[in-house]
Amino acid sequence: MFPKIENAEVDVAIRLHEHGLLPEPQRRKFVETVTGYALRGEDLYALGDHDIRSVFKGNEFEELR
């Protein structure tokens, strides 16, 4: 679904989220995918990317640590 953090799908998900148009199930899948990449050490870019982190809600990002 999101093979690389730089993927165009990621940009679309971020923009949809910014405008309140990303459905919650897809937002959760996005967060799970980004989290999985980070936990496996495959792509840590999300940890420092403000736009990607903006899709996380509440303590979702803190739970990643």
Q: What proportion of the residues is helical, as a percent range?
A: 55-70%
Low-confidence stretches: none
What is the C-alpha radius of gyration, as a whole number of Å? 11 Å
Count of DSSP-assigned helices? 4
Describe what you observe in this structure.
With 65 residues, the protein is an all-alpha fold. It has one domain (8-64). Helix content is 55%, strand content 0%. It has four helices and no strands. The chain has helices at 8-18, 24-39, 50-53, 60-64. The longest helix has 16 residues, at 24-39. The model has no long low-confidence stretch (mean pLDDT 87).
Features:
65 residues, mainly alpha, 4 helices, 0% strand
Summarize, please.
The chain has 65 residues and is mostly helical. The protein contains four helices and no strands.
Q: How is this fold's topology laid out?
A:
Blueprint: H1 8-18, H2 24-39, H3 50-53, H4 60-64
